[in-house]
Amino acid sequence: MRTRIKFCGVTAQAEAELAVACGADAVGLILAPSPRRISLHDAVAIAATLPPFVTPTFVLVDPDEKTLAAAHAAWPAATLQCAGEEEPDLLDPYALRILKVLHVAAESTPDELDAACNRYRRFNVLLDTKAGAARGGTGARFAWDRAIDIVRKRPTIVAGGLTPENVGEAIRTLRPYGVDVRSGIERDGRKDEALMRAFQAAVNDADRT
Question: Which CATH number is correct for 4-208, 2.130.10.10, 3.40.50.1100, 3.90.1170.50, 3.20.20.70?
Answer without folding.
Answer: 3.20.20.70
